[in-house]
Amino acid sequence: MTADRKREAREKFLLGGIVVKAGLSKVDRAFLLGGLLELAKITPGTAEHRRLRDIGEEAFKAAPLDGGPTGMAETAEWY
User: Fold this and answer.
1) What is the separation, in whole angstroms, between the first and last Cα of the chain?
2) Domain ranges, residue 48
């Protein structure tokens, strides 16, 4: 596997972990994509962007329900 393919696979793995951590692994894919498209419209640096980022930061610090890793750095170590 080339370095680019490994990097791409790793990125997809980490993004999938975020979906699972948010409790969205069982939702309709169109709903999930719609939500992500709406989030993409939020301008970085705005109050709404900071608010949502703060929520995400806290979620990464929180203990997972399944006993798995708690943060992105630990999630990255899964493979």
Assistant:
1) 15
2) 3-63+71-75
DSSP state of 8: H
CA nearest neighbour of 60 among 20, 7, 12: 20
Q: Is the pLDDT of residue 29 over 70?
A: yes
Give the torsion sign (CA, 78, 71, 45, 31).
positive
E strands of 1-79, at which residues? none
Take residue 53 and report the two structure tokens written for it.
């980022």
And the tokens for 59? 């979620």
Q: How many domains does the chain have?
A: 1
Mean pLDDT over 55-71 rounds to: 72
Tens digit of each residue's pLDDT (9 = 90 or more) over 43-55: 999 999 999 999 9
